[in-house]
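Question thread 4412

I'm putting together a teaching handout and wanted feedback from people who do this every day. The idea is simple: show students a protein as raw sequence, then show them the structure tokens that encode its fold, then repeat with a second protein so they can compare. Below is the first pair exactly as I plan to print it.
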Amino acid sequence: MSTQSNPDRLKRLAYIEDQRNQKPGHCNRFLHVVIDPEFLREPHGAQVLPKLTELGCKYELQQQSSPSTVTFYRTVPSKVTTTGTVSDTRVDEPYAVLLLDGASFVSYVRNHQLLAIVRSVKQGLREVGNDGDKQLDRRLSLLVFGLVSYCRQHRGCVGRRQTEQALTELQLYEDISHQLLETDEQVGTFLAQLARSIAERPYKQQQEERYGGADQGQYFGNEKKGCVRVEGTAGLQQLFQAQLIKIPSVTLEIAEAILSVYPTLHALMEAFRVAGEQHAPNLLASIAIRRAGGPIATSARRIGPELSRKIYLLYTSTNPKQEL
């Protein structure tokens, strides 16, 4: 029996640990949220830190190049390199958040300055990347806090058309999304949701590459309990059985009875085609159901015409409003 050398074993353990750390629930603790102190001003900042603490992310209060902004970076856990040394890596995330209060937003829109202001913020958020010479262009999300409340208290506020035009320009020219928020709860929830999405991004990208590639062929699966994986022809019967059980009134015994005659969905569809529209609805009606794996007696239950018709319609109907 061959045993792995110590370096190979360490690399294997490091790989397993890395995969575990990328999974949702584990990855949050490696994300750092860098918050400008102005972002935490009352009342909109009251819920930000509690939400991030609940999520399990780390946060840092640090003055940014632009006030009221938030940036993100992750720390990649220590890894053993090929030379046996241990290295830590910081990865800056290409996302940022800018918060404007209602008064500032109205002023910028009224004076046609919003696009220029946001462009200036984006330029200020550019930082030197890990390679030392490449700038990091961050995708900016704009939060406008208290716009509705401000306009209710101040006459002569900007109109809806002018506001929508200014926000549309941001989206068209700078690819900037926006949120109009009115409570501190909404601000904290948005930042926590964005932080979670950023933390889970490497894991989701890995899953997409593993299962979503064009060269993967037929591969149905994920890492959740009860999922049926199909590679080539292996697992097709189990997938068909799992699919049948999802149909109302189809129990495990009924599914096994159908599989005993038509082991795959392709076999069932071919049988429907051969039987023709007149006989196909009753194709499964006479199939006997074995009770709990016991012998088929003369009094054994059968699938029956009603359930047979429902299964036939489910797999063959082209009417999107078909009722079973």
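The second pair follows. I'd like the answer to focus on this one:
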Amino acid sequence: MDTFFISHGAPSMSIDETVPARHFLKSWREKVLPEKPKAILVVSAHWETSNPSVNVIDGPNSTIYDFYGFPKPMYQLKYPAPGAPALAKRVVGLLKGAGLGPIKEDKARGLDHGAWVPLMFMYPDSDIPVCQLSVVARKDATYHYEMGRALAPLRDEGVLIMGSGSATHNLGAVGPDGGPIPSWALGFDTWLTEALLDGRYEDVKRYEEKAPYAKKAHPYPEHFHPLHVALGAAGDDAKAELIHHSWTNQSLSYSSYRFNKA
């Protein structure tokens, strides 16, 4: 099973049919991954904890509306995918085995919008077991890459490992759709794609010093670290592929990537 990083953009994609990435995600099973995963592990930017945490849910996942001031229909959407307690326990064991503990098991938390918004288009039947893994506050990209490396065995077990964040994420610098893309957003996004396709993964791990406009594109790293987990899970010799590229809000990149073994 290949690993993926999906730029999920604004939660309004859930109801806004004009967002190009929405149509990309709806074509997922036909054009990207026809093979149905046995389970899905989502590393979402919208769950940030002091230590790695996994939701261990026996029964359907609840739908978390972790956004404010959006249209009422968004708060009526549901994605009751079954939990994946066996996978969650496996994740705990792999992370502990790699010395990345302690690991918290959260038995109440459902799926945040970084998980359920893309998944509702990718797998609309909500019939695949899903669990989430948090990103870890105050840990760097290399740490998250090592988290991914620890999770690599899941790929051979039919588990889809998906990082969900954003290629660029500076909500204080967004603008109207259709406006010119700022040089900082275009510069970082272009650098990221070139670095990944060239296999310069050490540079991607050290993006804060290697990438142009890194701090402008990601004032905080939580939307970028899911990429490092997905990349680490694919392995050092993985090949990267750009599978989608679009923009909304002038500076919000939806660049999404597939990582597979050479």
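Top answer:
Good format. For the second protein you could add a caption like this: The beta strands are 3-7, 39-49, 53-55, 104-106, 130-136, 159-165, 238-244, 247-248, 252-253, 256-261. The two ends are 13 Å apart (CA to CA).
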